[in-house]
TrEMBL record:
Annotated region described as Disordered, given as residue ranges: 184-203
Key word Glycoprotein present: no
Domain of life: Bacteria
Pfam families tied to this protein: adh_short
Protein name: 1,6-dihydroxycyclohexa-2,4-diene-1-carboxylate dehydrogenase
Provenance organism: Streptomyces viridosporus T7A
Keywords: Oxidoreductase
GO molecular function, one term: 1,6-dihydroxycyclohexa-2,4-diene-1-carboxylate dehydrogenase activity
InterPro entries: BenD, NAD(P)-bd_dom_sf, Sc_DH/Rdtase_CS, SDR_fam
Family per similarity comment: Belongs to the short-chain dehydrogenases/reductases (SDR) family.
EC id: 1.3.1.25
Amino acid sequence: MSVHDDRFAGKKVVVTGSAQGIGLAVARRLTAESAELTLVDRSELVHEAAAELGAHSVTADLESYEGAETAVASALERHGRIDVLVNNVGGAINFKPFTEFAAEEIQAEITRSLLTTLFSCRAALPAMTGQGRGVIVNVSSCATRGIHRIPYSAAKGGINALTASLAFEYADAGIRVVATAPGGTEAPPRRISRGTPPPRSAREEEWFQAHIDQTLASSLLKRYGTLDEQAAAICFLASDEASYITGTVLPVAGGDLG
Ligand SMILES: NC(=O)c1ccc[n+]([C@@H]2O[C@H](COP(=O)([O-])OP(=O)(O)OC[C@H]3O[C@@H](n4cnc5c(N)ncnc54)[C@H](O)[C@@H]3O)[C@@H](O)[C@H]2O)c1
């Protein structure tokens, strides 16, 4: 990982879903680049990550608006302002043909991968507009064009839409709103499960494998990305180096445009 030592010096940054995976990789890079962090997660493991990084941490369930308000209030109490909000919470739960999804499973995907970001943006924007500046980086997905996770694809399409429209609505307030769309990303085994049920049959295993095969086939580079490759793009967009970029969704997926 190559970093820009002081790119975030003096910046107060909130990263959601930062107990593991892409969120933790972003938090590690931001720390190396001198940011002052609030790590938000619903898992207690977030406190372990915060101890490693010397960051502030708060547990909150961002699937409720109250959780988002709690997280923002805690960040403001500790740091007084929010310069950057990285909305990273999300992730597909189920992998199967659309007609296999029960109604409550569809709802759970939208709640996990769309409402969390909507709620966090709504909770953080008043502080940002009060400051007269701020950056929101949403973590979308190239699965906006993919198989076997249609409700998740729809949720991430919503993330792209709210990124563009919030950028439009809050540009005059000095706020940039951007997103990355990661492709398949290699990571160590998850310590915190997304709640994906283990496959109960060869057919369910095939459904899961099919989304991996499609992800690789859709990428020009024919490989998964790394956590560092995702964190590098998120941190660039969050930084002042990206000051003329807003409303944009940057695919980070080896050529898969999503
Ligand atoms: N990993 C990939 O291959 C990939 C590909 C494309 C997009 N993405 C997107 O990148 C983001 C991160 O993915 P990941 O694989 O690193 O995630 P992950 O599942 O490994 O980790 C998600 C983190 O968010 C936390 N979290 C989940 N629900 C929460 C809630 N309601 N409130 C607070 N915290 C909550 C979890 O505890 C966990 O720490 C997601 O938005 C995902 O959709 C990931």
